[in-house]
Request: fold
Amino acid sequence: MLTFRGKSAFGGIAVGRICVYQKGQQQVKRRRAADTDAEVQRFHHARELAIEQLGELYETSLKKVSEAEAAIFEVHQMMLQDGDYMESVENIIRCQEVNAEYAVAVTADNFSRMFSVMEDPYMRERAADVKDVSERLLNVLTGASGAGPTVAEPMIIVARDLAPSETVQLDKEKVLAFVTLQGSVNSHTAILAKTMGIPALVNTSLEGQGETGANERNLLEQLDGKRGIVDGFQGLFYVEPEEELLLEMQSRKAAEEKKKDLLQSLKGKSNVTLDGKEIQLYANVGNIKDLALVIQNDAGGIGLFRSEFLYLEKDDYPSEEEQFQIYKTVAETMAGKKVIIRTLDIGADKQAEYFGIPHEENPAMGYRAIRICLDRPQVFMTQLRAIFRASAYGNLAIMYPMIISLEEIRRIKELVAQVKDQLESQGIAYRDMEQGIMIETPAAVMISDRLAEEVDFFSIGTNDLTQYTLAIDRQNPKLDEFYDAHHPAVLKMIQMVVDNAHRAGIWAGICGELGADTSLTETFLKMDVDELSVSPSAVLPVRKAIRESNVGKKQQSH
Ligand code: PEP
Ligand code: MG
Reply:
């Protein structure tokens, strides 16, 4: 039996077979190739196809982004025409008599290592590009789409890492749990595990061995097809468990199911404390597939629809019509309950290739969210049109991420006015929606008194607010111990935002992960927070905490 220890992204116990997902060069197996000429030809043929794909990507992205941004695809094309790169692949095929895939993977490893130690920062950045372009080449060679893991029966997915764009494409019905060797508990991949309600571990390594490092590939290969247990409560992952442990975990799993059943009795009950204070309890979703979970868990509405996942699932910008159909379905399905659509929050760890966002030194503090939307108004207005059109079909509200200034609000209002004018002149129906902002930067907290005069509500994004307040990259697993979600600075900021909202007569909620922390439920109630929006799986546990709370005399009055 092998025992791994990781950080829990979501509790729960899963027992089943392991499917190892290895993307890009890690998928590649070394095969002996008798006909090396044919392999060299396969390589060049794939190279030409990849160059063609990159040319098309360059052309389509020119319509959406600046020439400088689209130029990344030209850089990739040049890499595939680079003499040293081609020579290395050909040489490996011929000397080692191996398949083209293996030769490309080894060349990618060697070249990216070489680039990553160069002094010139520009050259260091090319390390990621060479990996990227080689991955494209491998996808052409293997006929893969690069769309993330797919399995035929429910299994435990084990991967070196999973990007949010891959995680969102997992079929919840087919995934018992997932375990990644890398990743942080505050990443969007971890948040997605919570939304999907599946046990998940991140930053996992073989017990006693710390970082798995160079042996990762071998280690992962060994696990494929074996029987595993994920204990999301203890952060443990067992491979080929002993019979006794298997029986113990199966009975713990049954006990957990029972607890979940007990929570079901809270369905239909109000979110009221013992002394009569009521709070709204909504759910966070990233996908139309999550709607069933919202309803099953009896959330009062959707407090955060992470619309960027519509973009992450696709190879090109979703059209207005496509988005409209999705927002309309959400509005209709929620049948009059409030649905707050957050506009596109792409960037940082949520990247879609077709946006052509060049590599950044500090992506979390970089070109992301509302900054991209205001910089590329055509992308933003397409989304706004889709949301406004869908507003006629239910109770939609809209909120904007990563706000830092009044100027941004002013600019957003101008674009919203243009969208409404367009719809009116086209005779397309829409409703006036509540429009709010996310408070997830210290700047927004500090000017929340002014911002409150401009918008209809605040939703506090504690995930980003914590990272920006504590100067802790939420993606960096080494900092998980320092990421103090209960830091007094963050709690003080929440109180400040709520007070400023109430002074201006608007409501304030929390949609970051902290909202689901039941050890703080009573504190939030005492702070007079109006709404908590949590992962669907956390709705009933938070309701239980609310109903067991006693707020006493209100600390603040407004
Ligand atoms: C947050 O930052 O708290 C938030 C809810 O947004 P996201 O996690 O998607 O960045
Ligand atoms: Mg955020």
